[in-house]
Amino acid sequence: MKKCLEIESENMFSIDEMIVPYKGTKAGSLRQYLPSKPHHWGFKIFVRAGISGMVYDFLTYTGKSTFDTGQGPVKDLGVGANVVIQLCKTIKNPLDCVVFFDNFFTSLPLIVHLKESLGLRSLGTIRKNRLKGCTLEDDRGLLRQGRGSYDYWMDNEAEVAAVK
């Protein structure tokens, strides 16, 4: 992992999960089952990669002990958000970087936390249940308005926007 951190990095990153295939039985609780992946059994790894596909940092999922690294998780943000924060801490020049992630990781408090604590810009798809205090037009309403319709919500104080 230290060698990954020594590589001169890009300024656009994607954070996602991947699985390293393993069919053995000696790994105990480290071996995970992910039915949505091509290889269902293996080691679950969270990865921060550049747009070129180069891996710059990773975190092996070990269950509850995943964040027992001394730095600890940020309370109330959830596992996905804590993974993103942990992987973003190793970005060398966060003010010049953008991080992208999917709806497993994204929440409005995470985006605000990354901006305030690391100065990091981020973009992600988000689940409806994580849009607390943010009201957007429902799918049916946008369909009635026709193709190209959209709705947005902005918080100028936190510098966050949600677009549907």
* Biggest sheet layout: 6 strands, mixed
Structural class: alpha/beta
Give the overall pLDDT as a whole number: 85
Uncertain regions spanning at least 5 consecutive residues = none
Strand portion: 25-35%
Number of helices: 4
> What is the gyration radius calculated from CA atoms?
18 Å
Q: State the distance separating the first and last CA atoms.
A: 38 Å
Note the run of SSEs as H and E: HEEEEHEHEHEE
Give the overall shape, derived from the CA principal axes. globular
Helix content: 10-25%
The total strand number stands at 8
Domain PiggyBac transposable element-derived protein: 10-135
Organism: Xyrichtys novacula
InterPro entries: PGBD
Protein name: PiggyBac transposable element-derived protein 3 isoform X2
Give an overview in words.
The mean pLDDT is 85. By secondary structure, the protein is α/β, with parallel strands linked by helices. A hairpin with a 7-residue loop joins strand 2 and strand 3. It has four helices and eight strands. 20% of the residues lie in helices and 27% in strands.
Summarize this, please?
The chain is an alpha/beta fold and 164 residues long. The strands form two sheets. Strands 1, 2, 3, 4, 5 and 6 form a six-stranded mixed sheet that branches. Strands 7-8 form a two-stranded antiparallel sheet.
